[in-house]
Amino acid sequence: MPAEVLVRLERVDTPLSPGTIHFHPRYEHFLKRCGLETAADVLDLSGEIVCGHPTRHVARVELKNRVVYLKREHVVGWQDRFKNARAGFGWVSKCEREARTLQRLEAAGLTGPQWLAYGTDVEGRAFLMIDELAGTEARRLLGDTSLSLAQRRKAIAAAGRSAAALHDAGFATPELAAKHLFVGPDRDSATLIDWQSAPPPGTVAEAERIRSLAGLHASVAEDLAGPRDRLRFLRAYLGTRGRTRHRLRSIEKLAAKQRSRSSKRDQRQSTVTAPQRLVWLRGEEVCAIPDLVPFWPRDVDGPPFYIEGHSQHDEEWVTFSNGRRGLVKRFRTTDLLGRTFAALRGRPWRSPGATAGRILFHLERFGIPAPRLLAFGQRTTGRTTAESFVLFEPTPNGFAVSAAIERFSAENRDELLNGAGRLLRRLHDAGCRLRSAKNPRLTAFEDGKLELSSPFAVELFKRISNAVRARDQTELCNRELGISNDSDRQTVLASYAGAGRIAGNWVR
Questions:
Q1: Taking residues 240-247, what's their average pLDDT?
Q2: Does domain 279-393 have CATH number 3.30.200?
Q3: What is the pLDDT averaged over residues 239-268?
Q4: Whose CB among 42, 51, 82, 218 lies 3.0–4.6 Å from 264's, allowing a Cys bridge?
Q5: Where along the chain do its domains lie?
Q6: How many beta carbons lie within 10 A of that of residue 79, not counting itself?
Q7: At 2, is the pLDDT very low, low, confident or very high (cuts 50, 70, 90)?
């Protein structure tokens, strides 16, 4: 390990002051040649957002033909700083905490994401820049039918050995999950990403090892990895240390509890194979899909998305220069209580437009039929006021489900009822529930397929209780479908009960 890296490790053990940047010695010259001298330069970089949360996101950025990933924290709340201080990292952001762990992995000679720089700007926002990993995410690799059996076994064994090496070196892995595990191109090694919640290195107790392996076990869908694959991973992890059967029972018992958590459920049920992307055109004021960016108006945050003096809630159709059309819904919001509560919690406030965009992004990730998200944005106009919008692309030629039931033949009518039950089950499995609404929440088409009518038809909910399931079933049968007989109701409920994650032919 170069001495300069070890010196840097000692030097960053104090909290960052606002407006500072720390470079990796090996990449400092490269980043400065790219014009990145300050934290503000880094945070202003434009790129495609590949994943995100209300307080942070990850963007894919190209720097002189080099691909890097930029983690941005929009708000570094006191709760996050307190958790990091209590864990032994000081009053720092998630980004700095993760950077320190990556530095320690590097010093220990272990495989991990290669960090390039991290810091905070004068507004208190934080960032961490890491190099692109060469490899394949474990979930995609397990679903790759072109892999030979030998290649598959080799990759699974490499993942097991890599997890064992981290634990043996004293690095706990609370974020060990299939979506965070990347297998190298040679299938001989694996790298774990997302270290923002890892504690400082120390002895990893047996209970912590079991808990981490159970989290990985719970995050992998059964159709991606069968019992033999899981056993092969555990045997590679254990090496010559026996008692495989005992650990298997402990891991399975704990994994059964973890499967009900929304984070694990989402990883098992996400069905989108193509990566989802968004581009910040002007911060959170305009976030659009990459296909639409070249055709966005020059006045990025102007009409028809933000119109001074527009009514509190209004909408209109927008046509871009490439001929693509979308429906924009605009909002003007006054929310003193919500903004104050968010500030006290150290969390960003979410506008109606941003919330709708998040819902459509979530539905797309789970393959649930809904209008296509094109863009969304939000901006504050005062201490309590804000403007926002969401732009989406509804499927044309749809009509209310209740009208479809009346006009369809008996056979198609039954298929429609079955499709409605399956769609509701998929919504619940994805952590969504029906939202109270005056307008129809489902749209039908001549071929009998269904989709959600708008992003305002549902709302995200961490835990879908039995009471919520029963309420939504009643809402679906009575208000959406207009069912008046028990036979039709039983058809819907039976389809809901037997659907699970499987979508029928009659769901778009």
A1: 72
A2: yes
A3: 77
A4: 218
A5: 3-131, 136-269, 279-393, 399-499
A6: 11
A7: very low
